[in-house]
Amino acid sequence: MDSNTLALMKKRQCSRVACSAEAVSTLTYDYADSLAVIGPLSFVVEPHGYDLCSRHSTSLSVPKGWLIMRHTPHDFDGSPA
Ligand SMILES: [Zn+2]
What we know:
Layout: H1 3-9, E1 25-30, E2 35-40, E3 49-52, H2 54-58, E4 67-70
Parallel strand pairs: 2-4
Antiparallel strand pairs: 1-2, 1-3
Bound molecules: zinc ion.
């Protein structure tokens, strides 16, 4: 069993303050392109990523001029790249 498998088995919590809901997606910021990217929960904990529960990922707001890019589960078949 490798470390990626271990990370998958461990439940992750929403990174928002005072939120203890289970994280379902990972948010990363692309500062160069003023882009906030919400995708499926990352396999490994990304140093610059934020794990979000479904509520916080849908209610995400970004600074003016920024775009939100969402990768819905429909775009992602779950198979390893
Ligand atoms: Zn949350």
